[in-house]
User: What shape does this take?
Amino acid sequence: MFMGEYNHTIDAKGRLIVPAKFREKLGDEFVVTKGLDGCLFVYPNEEWKTIEEKFRTTPLTTKDARKFSRFFFAGAAACEVDKQGRILLPSTLREFAGLEKEVVLAGVLNRIEIWSKAKWEEAGDYDDMDEIAEHMAELGLSI
Assistant: This one.
């Protein structure tokens, strides 16, 4: 499980340091893809394989499934950690998420999310959390 929030910067070449606690769980190679809400999702290879298997069973006759598959898989990239603990994020993924300099890496259960710091702060409005918690309870996810 991934958890925690880390602030880092992307250098001019598009390299980003992955926090050591995340590297331990990710391994040396993992997958980065377009995420929801304007961020990037990072998955360990084992988790990525599980997601692939789920999508393989999705009928191609479903337009939303085809569209989401293209969004999620076509933009995916395998990333490797270099000796300094950095990854090179492809420019298409950096552009999608609006990553320029300051970024936030957030551990969210089975994945890591990479956000531009500005988008992270915008998304961090938790004033409606009581209402959301009630809805989550309706889904059987109470805490």
